[in-house]
Amino acid sequence: MTDVVLNNISKSYNKGAVKAVKDVSFSVDQGELFGLIGSDGAGKSTIFRVLTTLLLPDSGNASVMGLDIVKDYQAIRNNVGYMPGRFSLYQDLTVEENLLFFATVFNTTIEENYELIEDIYVQIEPFKTRRAGKLSGGMKQKLALCCALIHRPKVLFLDEPTTGVDTVSRKEFWEMLKRLKQQGITILVSTPYMDEATLCERIALIQNGNILSINKPEAIIKQFPQKLFAIKAGNMSHLLEDLRNSKLVSSCNSFGEFHHITFTSGNESETQQRLISLLQQKEKHADLEIRSITPTIEDCFINLMN
Amino acid sequence: MKQFLIFVRKEFYHVARDSKTLLLLFGMPVAQIILFGFALSNEIKNAKVVICDYANDYASHRIIQSIEASNNFDVEKSILSHEDLEKSFQEGTIKLAIIFPGNFNNDLLHLKKAQVQIIADASDPNTANTLTAYATNIMMGYQKELQQSNTGQMMINTNVRMIYNPELKGVTNFVPGVMALVLFLICVLMTSVSIVREKEMGTMEVLLVSPFKPVLVIIAKAVPYFALSLVNLTVILILSVFVMGMPMNGSILLLFFESSLLILTALSLGLLISNSTSSQQTAMLISLIGGMLPVLILTGFMFPLENIPWPLQMIANFVPSKWYYIIVKSIMIKGLGFSAIWKETLILAGMTIFLLVVSIRKFKIRLE
To answer: What is the ipTM of this complex?
Structure first.
């Protein structure tokens, strides 16, 4: 059973000047935790807004829970939960008032679905008389999630819920999403953080309005076409320059402590030795260290982008 | 219904927790009423006037006493030559001259008819008009006095007749105008930002993806401002009657009903602006500039509408406060009932329905 289906959806802004989403198709199964991974401006929010019936697509069609996003927009609005990318609760209302407001607007009560939000709400309950605008980033997102969940939606749309949230809160947030998934809620989540991709069941990598790849995170990693190596040396910026100039190296990207490289030749072990000796003798690099690694989603993303 | 009530409650929270809005809502009307009522009245006080009393008899003395007693004039008694009089006018030291010819009392008693010459500095026509009217009024008062004590008709001059506002008090002209201005502007301003604010804060996005109906959003937005405007109206009325000395000759209930109608018109216009703009600043600018000027100029309290060019008169018909101004004057000053103002009421009601329908139709159910 699929809950969300997109067929060749395109959407542009400013009368076609900016093409935000180009011919995007994918589907999300019922009860699935699906991630849209892409940098800022990739078109994630536009896809969310099309699916939540807030924007009309230029072409293509889509449905949520079998309901057409254009024709049956009100039915979709009644049954989904949506948390926009920007904090969109009433800043001058308290935590409690916000929750009560959204519960009532959705024709339900806090008590009715309390068990669904309990895990999350207990964390912000000590601040329930505080105005939402005065909460920290993580708290705001937890409250927004509570408000989006209070009517027990069948499909949950979370647009960048962890952006601007500290690492601990981010981890907690994903734990919550996994628990919600167990309740049978279909979750569509977007994030610019590549490390969060592996927490989803399936992901779509998206760049400039195009879907680069859709698959399980492990499968996307398996599809990485070459062997990947991590290399480091005493002078990292010098090393990066030399690697990019080297004919032996086909791609080289800086990843914090290491540079990730792939080779032009298929015979990696031989090329590896040639590169090391070249770097040591000709370029005088010290403390060289190289090892074969499993690609991350970010490696795959960069690879697909090129 | 529960949905609706919680929405209204939320709106009240918004207003109550924003000190700036509260100040605007309740401070501005009081300030404006007092400002307009006192500072900008066209009533003239202590105008310099020269009286040339060639008669120097009983009747002229009585009239001069009345003129002196009035706080509109600052009297200087002298007999100036016509050249001196002209010079004083040119220098601007006097605004008005009243000349009693010789034999004033005799003429009045025996010919039953006497002349008084009033010369006014007409470089400021409004002031001249007003002062002439004040002076004429005093003459009429004396004439009436004579008629009561003597038998037979006696005429002093002039057939100017001032009804409803015998003392030419500025307040009766201004206060209804300011009431119209303040109620209208505040309501338009307050509501015009209310929906835009939701758009700007992003909360509209969440509201749209909910079972809440657009019509309810609009009505729920209007309810708190309607209630607060009624409070405002009460404050304005109390100020007008007890501080500004405005008469209250008609039915208060009718006045509240008609004011509610104007508030509704203003709320509908505000909602329309709110639905058609995308930022609070634009909405505020449109309602302030687009509201203030037409209301100020075309309501009729600053400049009599009869004096403005006919194209502007036509436009004035579309300014709701023009009709409200007529209604308020009819109720408060003339003490008239509904039968006298049903036409104006109907026009306001028509405008309200039109604006409300357009603003509901303009409400965007999507983001673009």
So the answer is: 0.86
- Assess whether B175 and B237 both reside in one domain: yes
pLDDT at A196 over 80: yes
- Contacts with A202 (C-beta within 8 Å, 6 or more apart), sequence order: A28, A32, A33, A34, A35, A214, A215, A216, A217
CA proximity to A36, closest of A51, A52, A47 = A47
pLDDT in tens, A93-122: 999 999 999 999 999 999 999 998 998 899
Contact list in B for residue A97 (CB cut-off 8 A) is 10, 13
Count of domains in chain B? 2
User: Distance (Å, rounded) from C-alpha B323 to C-alpha A36?
Assistant: 58
What pLDDT does residue B19 have? 84
- Give the fold, CATH level 3, of A2-216: Rossmann fold (3.40.50)
A-side interface with B, Cβ within 8 Å? 49, 52-56, 73-74, 77-78, 80, 82, 84, 86-93, 97, 100-102, 104-107, 147-148
Task: Let me know if residue B156 belongs to a domain.
Answer: no
Question: CA-CA distances (angstroms) from residue B194 to A90, B184, B191, B275, B355?
Answer: 13, 16, 5, 9, 16
Which class is domain A228-305? alpha beta
On whether both B60 and B207 belong to a single domain, the answer is no
Number of H helices, E strands in chain A: 10, 14
Burial B268-295 (b: 16+ CB within 10 A, else e): bbbbbbbbbbeebeebbebbeeebeebb
pLDDT of B70 over the 50 cut: yes
Q: What is the distance, to the nearest Å, from the Cα of residue A284 to the centroid of all Cα atoms in its chain?
A: 41
Range of the domain at B136: 47-149
Nearest CA in chain B to A51: B209
Give the pLDDT confidence score for residue B124 in this predicted structure: 63
Q: Which of A52, A92, A101 lies closest to B17 in CB terms?
A: A92
pLDDT of B210 above 80: yes
A122-147: pLDDT as tens digits: 999 999 999 999 998 889 999 999 99
Residues of B whose CB is below 8 A from A158 = none
Confidence of residue B301 (pLDDT cuts 50, 70, 90): confident
A 10 A CB-CB count for B160 gives: 11
Task: Give the domain ranges of chain A.
Answer: 2-216, 228-305
A77, A93, A104: residue with CB nearest B13: A93
